[in-house]
Write a structure and sequence with these properties.
CATH superfamily of the largest domain: Aldolase class I
Strand content: 5-15%
CATH class of the largest domain: Alpha Beta
Radius of gyration: 18 Å
Structural class: alpha/beta
Number of strands: 11
Helix content: 40-55%
Distance between the termini: 27 Å
Order of helices and strands: HEHEHEHEHEHEEHEHEHHEEHHHH
CATH architecture of the largest domain: Alpha-Beta Barrel
Number of domains: 2
Shape: globular
Strand order of the largest sheet: 1-9-8-6-5-4-3-2
């Protein structure tokens, strides 16, 4: 993989990026993935600005390898977050949930590598036009907040690849070396992995949530709350409460009232499996254990190489 555009862009060993997930991606996980040869990302979406600063500093102390910060752009204190990123000398930023034009030039002027997360071809082209260095194209299988068009990774990656001139990272439903190989055969230069790392030893998520990921089978997640922001959740009591409310033709305010505040924190960070939002991808059905992040990277690369050998032996 020495000539890979993603490993060269980030100066990493393997084209595996750990997604900057809320309530899972603190400094322990990000530094562990970076130390293992991938790219670790801090999830700024669940951090107050000063908490983010602390995690950046701890990450710098825990690894001398590149790492980055994932910033969902829908938060009110975004200017403060961006200023901290610049002050602390972070060199890689992944932006999501917003217009890439808003912050790309600001970050690029500071010498920061910028990647934007999209769920469709149109948005990938807008990100390229805004001057980002690479794009993450995320399929509908992904956990957490999701695209509205329901385009799956298997169809999204080749469609984006056909139109895009910059490096492409595939996300959504990738947790194994075979999934990584499939994404790269379809045109991706690297992969972003969320759910698999959420169920790692170093993930800052609650042990109850990690166990819920391991216990999840196919069909145990569904995307809901599309009127607010589509989100893929494990089917628990809160999820069924949402479904029950939908039978009454709720207004957006009714949905907001039920959702309340800090519902994701309650589920993923505090471990309330009944009343919390449990955001995870469909690939949870393939995750069977909680292991160190380094072991996840190692397993993925070994399986990638094995699958590549198997594929090279296919003849018709």
């Amino acid at each position: 993989m020495t000539n890979n555009s993603i490993t060269q862009l980030f100066n990493i060993k393997y084209p595996i990026i750990q997604a900057g997930m809320i309530w899972a991606s603190g400094w322990r996980l990000a530094s562990a993935v970076s130390n293992a040869g991938g790219l670790g990302l801090l999830g700024a979406g669940s951090m107050y600005p000063e908490v983010l600063r602390e995690h950046i500093q701890k990450c710098k102390a825990a690894t001398n390898k590149p790492f980055g910060v994932n910033v969902p752009m829908l938060y009110p204190n975004i200017q403060e977050i961006m200023d901290i990123i610049v002050e602390e000398g972070v060199k890689i930023v992944f932006t999501s949930a917003g217009n890439p034009k808003t912050w790309t030039s600001f970050l690029k002027e500071k010498g920061i590598t910028v990647v934007h997360v999209v769920a469709g071809v149109k948005f990938a082209l807008k990100a390229q036009e805004a001057g980002v260095d690479a794009v993450v194209a995320e399929g509908f299988e992904a956990g957490g907040h999701n695209g509205r068009d329901e385009t799956t990774t298997f169809t999204l990656i080749p469609m984006v690849r056909q139109k895009l001139n910059i490096p492409l990272i595939a996300a959504g439903g990738i947790a194994t070396g075979r999934g990584m190989l499939a994404a790269m055969v379809l045109g991706a230069d690297g992969v972003q992995v969320g759910s698999r790392f959420a169920a790692s030893v170093e993930s800052s998520s609650h042990e109850n949530f990690k166990q819920a990921i391991v216990n999840a089978q196919d069909g145990d997640t569904l995307v809901t709350l599309k009127e607010l922001a589509p989100v893929r959740l494990i089917k628990n009591k809160f999820f069924h409460d949402v479904m029950e409310l939908y039978t009454k033709s709720p207004s957006i305010d009714d949905l907001k009232t039920l959702l309340g505040r800090a519902r994701a924190k309650k589920g993923m960070f505090e471990g309330d499996l009944e009343e919390g939002e449990l955001e995870i991808g469909q690939i949870a059905g393939l995750i069977n254990d909680i292991i160190p992040a380094a072991a996840i990277v190692e397993e993925m690369i070994a399986e990638f190489e094995e699958a590549k050998r198997e594929v090279s032996g296919l003849h018709f």
